[in-house]
Specification:
It is built from nine helices and seven strands, in the order H-H-E-E-H-E-H-E-E-H-E-H-H-E-H-H. With 319 residues, the chain is of the alpha+beta class. Among the domains are: 86 residues, Alpha-Beta Plaits, CATH 3.30.70; 61 residues. A five-stranded mixed sheet has the order 4-5-7-3-6. It has a two-stranded antiparallel sheet with strand order 1-2. The longest helix is centred in the C-terminal third of the chain and has 33 residues.
Length: 319
């Protein structure tokens, strides 16, 4: 039979088992709540290399990628192309304009093999000549040519009279023309597609008329773009060379009676020569002038006599 001693033993055994379970439960909870094992010292000093530099491993990777993307977005976009038309006019004096013109032409054509010359124009000025030159030079070499011409006269015994540069910005015109050309070519392709699909004669004629108009606009814009391209790729350079003496202003001479007498005598000689020339001309043309004057005088004399005869009353007759 179940006695008190056996009951006590069972109760004691149950208590020991319960205490062991509680201890095991607490041990499990304590192991879970304790943090992760500390990292080795070597792993704590590791770093990750990014575009912006080295970041500690503990730093957020997203921050590095965000920094790289923001720096690329903040980069300045490349500047848009600019289309300029430039022309340069240079005027200078030279001891020998023809030699200077030959030297300048040779230098420009050697410096820029693609340059084109419009030739030279000579205008005689006394014993010397005024020379004009016109070139079309590449835009990339234009600054070098401008700098050379600016210092040529001073280095060759002449004088720089003037240097003028004209600049015209045609960027808006160029970009707008290209945009219109792209749109017109797209419309041309659409019209060609519609032409192939059209079946009625009326549709074909309408599409063909519109296509002719579009193609005419395309040709006009292409010609305009070709002109702008040439003007923005090659710049015009004009050079005017004149004799060195033509730029020298004569100093005023002091007054002297002798010079005044010479001027008066010269003027009198000129007047006498003119008067003598007139008399010679009158003498030569006298063969026409004298008869004409005589006829005029006779006609006027006859008219006067007739008027006098009409005014005189007739004499009365005696009985």
């Amino acid at each position: 039979m179940w006695n008190k001693t056996q009951g006590w033993r069972a109760w004691r055994m149950a208590g020991l088992l319960g205490a062991a379970g509680v201890v095991a439960l607490l041990a499990g909870c304590g192991g879970t709540s304790a943090g992760p094992a500390p990292r080795p010292a070597s792993s704590q000093n590791q770093s990750v290399t990014t575009q912006g530099g080295s970041l500690p491993q503990g730093s957020s990777a997203g921050a590095g990628s965000a920094s790289g993307s923001s720096s690329s977005q903040a980069a300045t976009p490349p500047p848009a192309a600019q289309y300029l038309i430039k022309s340069l006019s240079v005027s200078m004096t030279s001891p020998d304009p023809r030699k200077a013109a030959s030297d300048l032409e040779s230098w420009v054509l050697t410096t820029d093999p693609k340059a084109q010359s419009a030739g030279m124009m000579y205008v005689q000025d006394g014993a010397s000549y005024d020379v004009s030159l016109t070139f079309s030079v590449e835009a990339a070499i234009y600054p070098r040519i401008e700098s050379y011409l600016a210092g040529y006269a001073q280095g060759n015994g002449g004088k720089l009279i003037g240097l003028q540069e004209t600049v015209q910005d045609v960027t808006n015109d160029y970009v707008d023309s290209q945009s219109r050309l792209t749109n017109l070519r797209g419309e041309q392709q659409r019209l060609l597609t519609l032409m192939n699909q059209a079946q009625s004669l009326n549709d074909i004629l309408t599409i063909e008329q519109r296509l002719t108009d579009v193609e005419g606009q395309i040709e006009s814009i292409e010609a305009h773009l070709a002109l702008l391209s040439g003007q923005t790729t090659f710049y015009t350079v004009r050079i005017q060379l004149s004799p060195l003496d033509s730029a020298t202003v004569a100093a005023p001479q002091p007054w002297s009676p002798g010079s005044v007498f010479q001027q008066a005598w010269g003027a009198a000689l000129v007047f006498g020569q003119g008067l003598l020339t007139l008399l010679i001309w009158l003498g030569v043309f006298a063969i026409y002038i004298v008869p004409a004057v005589a006829l005029i005088w006779l006609s006027r004399r006859l008219v006067s006599l007739r008027r006098a005869a009409r005014a005189t009353p007739p004499a009365s007759r005696k009985p």
